[in-house]
Write a structure and sequence with these properties.
With 359 residues, this protein is an alpha+beta fold. It has helices spanning 29-43, 48-56, 100-111, 117-125, 152-156, 162-169, 222-226, 228-240; strands at residues 2-7, 12-14, 66-73, 76-85, 114-116, 127-128, 133-134, 142-144, 148-150, 174-184, 191-202, 205-207, 210-220, 255-260, 271-274, 288-290, 293-296, 299-300, 308-309, 313-316, 321-322, 328-332, 345-349, 352-355. Keywords: Antiviral defense, RNA-binding.
């Protein structure tokens, strides 16, 4: 499995939103697919349909885009921690054996949103088939800012002092901020509505001898990464950016690098977690065990012409769980009356990891 890292500068700003106009720090696989294809079309317009067909046939697979942290000691990178979204399934102990302290831990676990790859790996190993849940205590691991969970071993590898560990636990490298704006009428050139524009800002942090540098990344299969034209479109994506407000310089990256990932997420089993959004086929719906639905809507802007509203659909969010290898499907969201000679795709293919069956 390959990791595609999108490196960012200090105090980098992004606008990743959802249909509720809420900010998020996860850039979903369908939006990432659209960004990659749009940039590919700028470079190789005559080959775009061929690349789309490879995604449709599942020859190319990508996950959603998640956060990670590089720990730098001077000019040397000491450690990299990748985060994934917490699964939509119960994690903890048997509730018949719980006490007041366990209730406090459950509330702590409920606040967690992201788990490091090492924690994720241990969690998958802790699946209890008989009881039907992950028998694993996330609260016993190291928690950063009430949202991020990393393993105690990962912290021990950094050789931090007690005060430095406390500083790491209180770390908040993601900040939401609002900027006052005024809409201007394009025809009359007069000021209209006053509003606030919300974005997120990711900052470098200093702890002891380490500089913590956040980044975004996504997982992909070998065939996707080996395509040189795909790599060219990813390099262009760094300049073009991801998310909203890109015309203001928001959402850009410094560089794109590729790494291998070994020793984690290599499980097989009779159950699967998706690390991408999924739009299952009709015959796959009965295999869904746990999920959260999110809405996909909005407008299509092509060649600077009239905007068309896309068809509204609901997809299953990252972290959804299935009892077999569902594939998902491609959708064409082109609305009626859309005259331009191209389709509007939503990539609803799954990116799965198994659990419940050992290595």
């Amino acid at each position: 499995m390959k990791v595609v890292k999108l490196l960012i500068g200090d105090r980098a700003k992004f606008h990743f939103g959802n249909y509720k106009r809420e900010l998020t720090s996860v850039f979903s696989s369908d939006s990432l697919f659209s960004a990659i294809i749009n940039n590919y079309a700028l470079l190789y317009p005559e080959k775009t349909e061929q690349i789309i067909d490879k995604f449709r046939k599942r020859e190319y697979l990508i996950s959603s885009c998640y956060l990670g942290i590089d720990f730098w000691n001077g000019e040397k990178k000491k450690k990299t921690i990748y985060f994934l979204i917490k699964p939509f399934w119960r994690i903890g102990r048997d509730r018949n054996e719980e006490n007041d302290d366990d209730l406090r831990k459950r509330k702590m676990i409920k606040k967690l949103k992201y788990l490091s790859l090492n924690v994720y790996n241990d969690l998958l190993n802790a699946w209890n088939e008989e009881k039907g849940f992950f028998e694993y205590d996330l609260s016993a691991q190291f928690i950063i800012g009430n949202k991020f969970c990393i393993s105690n071993q990962e912290v021990d590898d950094l050789n931090l002092t007690f005060e430095e560990k406390r500083k790491l636990a209180d770390l908040n490298f993601i900040k939401e901020y609002s900027t006052p704006k005024v809409a201007v009428n394009r025809i009359t050139n007069k000021s209209e509505a006053f509003y606030y524009e919300n974005n997120i800002e990711l900052s470098y942090k200093k702890i002891g001898d380490y500089t913590l540098k956040p980044f975004f990344y996504f997982l992909a299969n070998q065939a996707f990464v080996e395509n040189k034209e795909i790599r060219a479109s990813l390099n262009l994506l760094c300049d073009e950016g991801l998310g909203g407000r890109r015309s203001m310089g928001i959402g850009q990256f410094q560089n794109c690098v590729y790494e291998d990932i070994t020793g984690v997420l290599s499980h097989e089993g009779n159950k699967y977690i998706s690390l991408s959004i999924v739009f299952p086929k009709k015959e796959e719906v009965d295999n869904v065990l746990s999920y959260n639905l999110v809405k996909r809507n909005g407008y299509i802007f092509s060649n600077g012409g009239r905007a068309f509203r896309k068809k509204d659909v609901r997809v299953m969010q990252e972290g959804s769980i299935f009892n077999c290898k569902v594939e998902g499907q491609f959708l064409d969201l082109k609305p009626e009356g859309f005259k331009l000679p191209h389709k509007v795709y939503l990539n609803g293919n799954s990116f799965l990891i198994g659990f419940g069956g050992g290595k």
